[in-house]
Design goal:
eight-stranded parallel beta barrel; TIM Barrel; Alpha-Beta Plaits; four-stranded antiparallel sheet; alpha/beta; 11 helices
Length: about 350
């Protein structure tokens, strides 16, 4: 017993009675109210519920159906919410017909560079601006970001362009300051299974962009999303950014098959980050086009005015003119599959 489907017209009193019954069994209830149905996701070890106890719940007033889900990710499963999840961020609806593009530098380097990039990606059609203020780097000697100073620059870029801000959280101790400035909190690939961090953003009301881990299976990825959702934050966006394989011709292996697989398994929106997926600027555009064709709800593209001098990931960053051309080239592909960009 993992999902309880309620009848149309179920009263609040009947709903509270069902929740109280679940709590008496040591379980928790996560209520999802749709346009036609209300669904209760049952959280906890439901394997201990006997068939007899399940039958009792199935005949309670207001209950239409009781279902068991074999998948360990209950709240993230397509069964929990057959219709796809949409997330409205300052008027930008993620998961709908429009394909959104998050663009900007890998790291916030200084105010002048960021403002210039933000202005140019806005003009090209991007709907969000990105930039790392706290940077997870392989080497401890590499540029680690500007911290709160960088977040202030992002907030200023938002004020000047109207583009909501996406930035990465690495440490639960930075949660308060990140929430102050970010519109979407990114959890990077290296932190996909940092469960303490996932629970922290699960307590937040901010949407979370969850990147796939370096060697994570889709099941592990969805279980990471489940950690966030189990705390009540259902505004999760999944982001495929390439996985580690034996191949060395590209930075990672961009697994575009993950997009249709996820669309089948989960109701959550799916983005693709071709910049990190391939690691070479001249391969970003073809993979971005392929991602849109595969059904992605959005893209993350790294853009820099002077990639040769970038402090982080310059080799995979598009120049503004190349980004502008890509945005133009994506439009007929999106249109061909009944979407817009």
């Amino acid at each position: 017993m993992d999902i309880i489907v309620l009848k149309p017209g179920t009263t609040e009193e009947q709903l509270r009675h069902i929740i109280k019954k679940l709590e008496s069994k040591g379980l928790q209830a996560n209520v999802s109210k749709g346009t036609e149905r209300t669904i209760i996701g049952v959280i906890g070890d439901t394997s201990k519920i006997t068939e007899e106890e399940e039958s009792v719940i199935s005949i309670m007033p207001g209950v239409e159906d009781v279902m068991r889900i074999l998948k360990p990710y209950k709240l993230a499963s397509r069964e929990f919410r057959p219709d796809g999840t949409t997330i409205n961020i300052k008027g930008n609806v993620i998961g709908g017909k429009k394909i959104h593009v998050i663009a900007g530098p890998c790291a916030v380097e200084n105010r002048t560079i960021l403002m210039n990039i933000a202005k140019k990606v806005k003009e090209a059609g991007a709907t969000f601006v990105r930039g790392g203020a706290f940077k997870p780097r392989t080497s401890p000697y590499s540029f680690q970001g500007l911290g709160e100073e960088g977040l202030k620059y992002l907030a200023e870029a938002r004020e000047k362009t109207g583009l909501p801000v996406v930035t990465e959280l690495m440490d639960p101790r930075d949660m308060e300051v990140i929430q102050k400035y970010a519109d979407i909190i990114q959890i990077g690939a290296r932190n996909m299974q940092n469960f303490r961090l996932l629970l922290e953003v699960g307590n937040s009301s901010k949407p979370v962009l969850l990147k796939r881990g370096l060697s994570a299976t889709i099941k592990e990825w969805l279980m990471a999303a489940e950690y966030i959702m189990s705390r009540g934050n259902h505004h999760v966006i999944l982001c495929e950014r390439g996985i580690r394989t034996f191949e060395t011709a590209t930075r990672n292996t961009l697994d575009l098959s993950a997009v249709p697989v996820l669309k089948k398994l989960t109701h959550l929106p799916v983005f693709v980050d071709p910049s990190h997926g391939v690691g070479k600027w001249d391969l970003v555009a073809p993979m971005a086009k392929a991602a849109v064709a595969a059904g992605a709800d959005g893209l993350i593209i790294e853009v820099h005015t002077n990639p040769e001098e970038a402090l982080s990931d310059g080799e995979q960053s598009l120049k503004p003119n190349d980004f502008k051309k890509l945005m133009k080239d994506l439009k007929p592909i999106a249109s061909a599959i009944g979407r817009s960009i």
